[in-house]
Amino acid sequence: MVSLVLVSHSRSLAEGLRDMVAQVAGDSVPIAIAGGTEDGRLGTSAPAILDAIRSVDRPEGVLVLLDLGSAALSLEMALEELTSGERERVVVSEAPLVEGAVLAGVQASLDADIATVAEAAASAASMTKLPR
Amino acid sequence: MPALASTTVFVTEGMIEAWLRLSATRLRERSRELTELDQAIGDGDHGINVDRGFTAVAAMLDGRSADPAAPAPDVAGTLKQTAQTLIRTVGGASGPLYGTFFLKASASLAGSPQPTLGDLIAALDAGAAGVATIGGGQPGDKTMLDALTPALSAARERLTSGAVDQVLAVAADAAEAGAAATIPMQARKGRASYLGERSIGHQDPGATSSAILLRALADSFQG
User: Fold this and answer.
1) Which residues partner with A4 through β-bridges?
2) Are B221 and B15 in contact (CB under 8 A)?
3) Which candidate from A45, A68, A76 shows the least CB-CB separation from B134?
4) CA-angle at B211, arms to B3 and B215, nearest 5°
5) Residue range B56-68: average pLDDT?
């Protein structure tokens, strides 16, 4: 099963989002989070992201979703630390974090492959919120 | 006295340590100013973040020198430990960016037990190239590179002309001018880019901290 890594500046946001995804995707989808700095401030940490990715590394693949600003830079550093074998299994999503994680979680729970899970996350960018 | 050839000026580990310690002091002194610049166009944590990071670097240097079992550090090793400390402690964008800067500089000096001033400039160049790669930026985007790039090109030019004195002072001057030149720029990278035209009229905090680092380099090597 594809696993998810949620990267946010805020530990609370990452933890809360993990709960939201588990609610719709069930407990079977492996989800790791990297939220905040090592000392509990708002921010991102390359070592924390690296640990999160490795903790849910699966042959089926790992989809990483992230929030804004330095999250991308820290992720970039973490990806550089991966072996080429590990790196091949990781896909980084451009999706908005919350909606993307929920949609990806649902697809992952259906045992979809990494491309399908990533596509579901990406579709979040054009999702409407209010009823039309 | 005739100018010495650039290759005869060696950079010791002690000089690098002095630079890092002076940088920590200067960034602390100017932390509030950096944070105010970042409040204008970013998320307002740049001063706090670089202060925290370089305070941790100074603590790392202290801890190392208090440990009699620690192996004698070399220039590349110290730069690498600096990178690792910044990556672990900063949290904001400046962590991965300055982390990459020092990491690539370190890699460039690996295998040079006795680097020259020219080697150091080349290493800092490699560091700036790493920043451009990871951040996807270039000069003119209102970033650290607007201080680093003109500084290192001024240093290279001065080295090529054979005048090693003032190489670092010339670099620091160019970095400060580069940082000031970010004021009319519109940000195209980082949190400030979300502001669009509203980012115009403010000096970039990252370029400012880079200029502080390069001035500290010039001052610590002289003194």
Assistant:
1) A31, A63
2) yes
3) A76
4) 45
5) 93
pLDDT in tens, A53-70: 999 999 999 999 999 888
Cβ pair B96:A46 closer than 8 A? yes
At B32, which helix (H) or strand (E)? helix B31-41
Cβ A89 vs Cβ A5: under 8 Å:
no
Query: What amino acid is encoded at A86 in this protein?
Result: E
B128 CA: distance to closest CA in chain A (Å):
15
Q: Which CATH number fits domain B10-222: 3.40.190.10, 1.10.3720.10, 1.25.40.340, 3.40.720.10?
A: 1.25.40.340
Decide which of 1.20.1090.10, 3.90.190.20, 3.40.50.510, 2.60.40.10 is the CATH code for A3-125: 3.40.50.510
Chain A contact probe: residue of B89, B104, B131, B144 with most A CBs at under 10 A: B89
Distance separating alpha carbons of residues B36 and A72, to the nearest angstrom: 24
From the list A36, A47, A76, which residue is nearest B88 (CB)? A47
Q: How does residue B162 score in pLDDT terms, banded at 50, 70 and 90? A: low
The complex scores an ipTM of: 0.75
Q: What is the CA radius of gyration of chain A?
A: 14
Is residue A110 among the annotated active site residues?
no
